[in-house]
């Protein structure tokens, strides 16, 4: 091991000890040793063992640990700390602006363990509630995490969408003489995108000079019909070179299950004038790419029975939104006026409940004051209406976060888990089932607590949860934030089968957050959700009837 490797080990050890709250004198010992070793003019490996302790800034204890590393290539005490620290915390140490002291607060107080979780917390303004985290610090951390995550290989649909469409336009403009058709996961509206894919009739040799001239490296792909490039954005561009572009577009725009079933029934020809011709030739209703997941959709299309899926314009309201009363950026009035400008009919304000101290959750007296404020706004903004809601924490025993008397003052209650997320399935199921069976619960919020590419979420038996929601007339939220998209669209078909309403909600913490509703719609389309099956597409009159019906459960 050279000096740099040894110094890096001591530096990491000092940081981890700081994070774990160890004696600051010990921590400083290793930090000073790291600084000293990095600046030494000679290699420690060439220094006699008995001379190590005499180097200024080293000492006996550090000298022994240097000797250990030179002999074994390992530092035992560092390995112990690494074993007791979540990998995501170590990953966060690599992000500029997050020192050990701040990271200790992030881990121990906010229970955050990954960069993605921390980014989401920044977007919800949670860091501002802790000493040492001002708006500027939070914004700097947010930008540093975004930069860090952009260097990873996988991307959220919501993060890559604008880039993908701009790249598509650019490629088509540069190679206007050829056909380029976006395909793959992006066209299917999958929530996670590993690469951007096109089908093209451009010769394989045409693309490399352009991409290489613009700083993109050619990737080895192992076949003669595909080329791929990766540039400074760390996003792979893959191209399928074809003489049958619409046939290959079809093959690159469906799941393996869908394609296997289709090709067994309707083998492809060598040429098509459009993708629609493939369906017309089979006598089958056109199936949009976002529905080409399971095989069952083919039978629906054969019977001309595809659902009239929900569209972004079918959203009539913002359900699940946070204001300045808890951890939001805008006032309720500002949010209501923004919703009116978007042509929406009503707003459901659902700030955090009292146990969510990290999000400035509302105490009972604040609930009463907020309700009075909403009443005043409703008089001023009529016919637009603001509904009184709360995102109630589901506590460890599955109870909701206020007494029944307080819960009864809300028009509706969204019940969500926000704490102690590291649960086994039996614990998670107990909490969720108790909350669902509570007559004051109207909507189950982000059912698994997942954050895409950052946190898997706690394990649940989806069918039992959906069955319980059906039995208790509880709506299941499709949280539209592109980092959540929870409940997973793959379970929505079962929701619809059981007659459970979906509610596409942005979980907005600002006016800009209203726009996230669109990502929920795109996910809902994959499950074939219609506007009639989505609560946030109800008209104001329909929603008022829904609220009255839900309140009957409490009696």
- N-to-C CA distance: 72 Å
Which CATH-level-2 architecture of the largest domain?
Answer: Alpha-Beta Barrel
**Helix and strand composition category:** alpha/beta
In this structure, how is the largest beta sheet organized? Answer: 7 strands, parallel
- On the 0 to 100 scale, the average pLDDT is 94
Proportion of beta-strand residues: 5-15%
- For the record, the count of structural domains works out to 3
Q: What's the overall geometry?
A: globular
Which residues sit in consecutive blocks of at least 5 with pLDDT less than 50? none
- The portion of residues assigned to helices is 40-55%
- Order of adjacent strands in the largest pleated sheet: 8-9-10-11-12-13-14
The DSSP helix count reads: 23
Rg is 28 Å
CATH topology of the largest domain: TIM Barrel
Kindly report the name of the CATH homologous superfamily of the largest domain.
Answer: Metal-dependent hydrolases
CATH class term of the largest domain:
Alpha Beta
Number of DSSP strand runs:
14
What does this molecule look like?
Helix 1 packs across helix 4 (about 75-85) and helix 1 crosses helix 6. The chain is of the alpha/beta class. The strands form 3 sheets. It has a 7-stranded parallel beta sheet. It has a 5-stranded mixed beta sheet with strand order 2-4-7-6-5, with helices on both faces. About 45% of the residues lie in helices and about 10% in strands. The chain has helices at about 5-20, 25-40, 60-70, 75-85, 85-90, 100-110, 115-125, 135-150, 155-175, 185, 205-215, 245-250, 255-265, 275-280, 295-300, 330-340, 365-380, 405, 425-435, 460-470, 490-495, 515-525, 540-550; strands at about 155, 180-185, 190-195, 195-200, 215-220, 225-230, 235-240, 315-320, 345-350, 385-395, 410-415, 445, 475-480, 500-505. The protein contains 23 helices and 14 strands. It has 3 domains: about 5-150, DNA polymerase beta, N-terminal domain-like (DNA polymerase, domain 1, Orthogonal Bundle); about 155-300, Beta Polymerase, domain 2 (2-Layer Sandwich); about 310-550, Alpha-Beta Barrel (TIM Barrel). The N and C termini lie far apart (about 70 Å). It is globular, with a radius of gyration of 28 Å.
């Amino acid at each position: 091991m050279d000096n740099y490797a040894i110094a890096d080990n001591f530096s990491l050890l000092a940081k981890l000890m700081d994070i774990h709250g160890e004696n600051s004198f010990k921590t400083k010992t290793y930090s000073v040793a790291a600084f000293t070793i990095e600046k030494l003019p000679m290699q420690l490996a060439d220094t006699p063992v008995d001379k190590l302790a005499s180097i200024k800034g080293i000492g006996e204890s550090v000298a022994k640990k240097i000797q250990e590393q030179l002999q074994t290539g390992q530092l035992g005490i560092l390995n112990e700390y690494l074993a007791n620290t979540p990998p995501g915390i170590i990953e966060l140490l690599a992000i500029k602006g997050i020192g050990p002291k701040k990271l200790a607060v992030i881990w121990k107080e906010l229970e955050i363990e990954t960069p993605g979780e921390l980014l989401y917390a920044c977007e919800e303004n949670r860091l501002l509630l802790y000493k040492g985290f001002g708006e500027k610090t939070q914004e700097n951390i947010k930008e540093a995490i975004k930069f860090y995550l952009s260097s990873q290989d996988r991307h959220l649909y919501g993060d890559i969408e604008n880039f993908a469409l701009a790249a598509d336009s650019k490629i088509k403009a540069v190679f206007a003489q050829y056909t380029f058709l976006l395909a793959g996961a992006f066209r299917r509206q999958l929530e996670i995108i590993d690469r951007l894919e096109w089908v093209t009739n451009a010769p394989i040799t045409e693309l490399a000079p352009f991409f290489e001239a613009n700083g993109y490296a050619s990737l080895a792909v192992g076949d003669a019909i595909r080329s791929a490039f990766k540039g400074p954005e760390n996003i792979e561009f893959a191209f399928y070179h074809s003489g049958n572009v619409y046939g290959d577009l079809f093959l690159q725009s469906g799941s393996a299950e869908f394609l296997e079933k289709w090709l067994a029934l309707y083998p492809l020809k060598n040429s098509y004038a459009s993708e629609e011709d493939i369906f017309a030739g089979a006598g089958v209703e056109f199936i949009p790419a976002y529905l080409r997941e399971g095989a069952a959709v083919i039978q629906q299309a054969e019977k001309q029975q595809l659902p009239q899926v929900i569209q972004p314009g079918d959203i009539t309201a913002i359900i699940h939104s946070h204001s300045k009363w808890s951890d939001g950026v805008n006032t309720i009035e500002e949010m209501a006026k923004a919703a009116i400008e978007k042509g929406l009919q009503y707003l459901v304000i659902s700030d955090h409940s009292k146990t969510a101290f990290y999000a400035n959750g509302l105490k009972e007296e604040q609930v009463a004051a907020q309700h009075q404020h909403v009443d005043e706004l409703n008089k001023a903004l009529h016919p637009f209406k603001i509904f009184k809601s709360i995102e109630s924490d589901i506590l460890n025993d599955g109870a909701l976060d206020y007494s029944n008397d307080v819960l009864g003052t809300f028009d509706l209650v969204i019940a969500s888990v926000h704490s102690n997320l590291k649960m086994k399935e039996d614990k998670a199921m107990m909490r969720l089932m108790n909350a669902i069976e509570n007559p004051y619960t109207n909507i189950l919020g982000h059912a698994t607590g997942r954050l895409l590419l950052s946190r898997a979420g706690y394990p649940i038996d989806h069918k039992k949860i959906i069955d319980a929601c059906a039995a208790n007339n509880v709506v299941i939220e499709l949280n539209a934030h592109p980092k959540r998209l929870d409940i997973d669209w793959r379970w929505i078909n079962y929701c619809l089968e059981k007659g459970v309403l979906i509610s596409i909600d942005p979980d907005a913490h600002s006016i800009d957050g209203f726009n996230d509703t669109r990502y929920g719609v795109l996910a809902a389309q994959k499950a074939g959700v219609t506007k009639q099956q989505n609560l946030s597409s109800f008209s104001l009159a329909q929603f008022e009837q829904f609220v009255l019906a839900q309140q009957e459960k409490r009696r």
